[in-house]
Hints:
Layout: H1 5-56, H2 61-68, E1 73-78, E2 84-86, E3 96-102, E4 113-119, H3 121-156, H4 158-171, H5 187-244, H6 250-283, E5 289-292, H7 293-307, E6 312-316, E7 320-323, H8 325-341, E8 346-352, E9 355-360, H9 389-399, E10 403-407, E11 416-421
Parallel strand pairs: 6-8
Antiparallel strand pairs: 1-2, 1-4, 3-4, 5-7, 8-9, 9-11, 10-11
Amino acid sequence: MSGSLRVRVTVTAIAVLLIVLPITGLVxxxxxxxxxxRSLDSLLTGRAQLAQQLARQNVAxxxxxxxxxxxxxxxxxxxxxxxQLGAPPIEAGGNVRQVKATLQAGVQTKxxxxxxxxxxxxxxxxxxxxxxxxxxxGAAAILITALALAIGMRFxxxxxxxxTGLARSIAAGRRGGRLQPERADTELGRTAAxxxxxxxxxxxxxxxxxxxxxxxxxxxxxxAHELRTPIAGLQTAAETLIQLGxxxxxxxxxxxxLLLVRESRRAGTLVSDLLELSRIDAGLQLQLTQVDLxxxxxxxxxxxxxxxxxxxxxxDGIAIVTADPERLTQVLANLVDNARQAGAQAIQxxxxxxxxxxxDDGPGVPPEVRDRIFDRLVHSPQSKxxxxxxxxxxxxxxxxxxxxxxxxxxxxxxxxxxxxxxSHPQ
Length: 426
């Protein structure tokens, strides 16, 4: 893979020529030799047929010899009385190709013997010259091909050089460059287009990673800020208890101990929520089973009747779904607690096979912040939490293949409506 593509293509092309040209030359020479042999045989046979025709026309022997004579053909006519006309006879064999015929007509030529001889050394010379021409032209073709490839490959591989230069510029930190091929229906065009698509994906992933890193840094900073308050409260209460010592009044000590419990619980809840979010990010493992949504909603209504007796909670609808009951309980508890903390006096929980809708008569959620309230560490002034509950609830909903959104109430009255949609794999 490390060899030069130009050298490899050039060497391959020359190697192919070195194989093809000799084979082609041998085939051409064999065809030439065979065709020359056939042509010579045809010439001698044709001259003999011409002599027979002239004899039938009663042409004189001398005239017949002159008319049958041709370049490269030696004509000898031996009459019945032994008289010889034309060239002296020679023996066939070696470099001599000979055809004999007995004339069948003519007053003077009937019964005469006609000998037509041809020197095949001329064919051998022509074959030798052809071989020389083929060798020289083959060598010239190889040399010209090598030079043409050396020059042509520079232009043919220019797109690859552009890809290499672009890849090196990107590796050096310069982003945004693209090949932008004029034609994407060729091999190099498709390669260049795929290269551009890869760069788009890489730069998009790099941008997403940077944004994710920025969000993570912001989240860590916000989490540290949120933890700072309960930790500071714990530290202050502990230091005060130490300073007061055993002489502290029981009421004052009780308040400080209550503060320690409350702040430690607040810090513990925040840490638990952060761990829960990390599990959601890593891929929440659900324990799917058949769940009665009406029963889960009734359980939350019963809990609220103990926590907030003045709060009116109604549940309607019946549905059995496949879900994780503990996770859905977590989501419903978060939704009804948020409604209670927002100042709602009545909560309506509607159950359907598609999910759950929780409506309240509180102040509602303005349209401009409806997406933002599901971000991490975002909470309203009325909220007593760290702003992770809705982020966790949406993560659980999406782990089920659904979502959690907020909008207006279906009846148009003031308040908020949270829609928990479920769509889990069967």
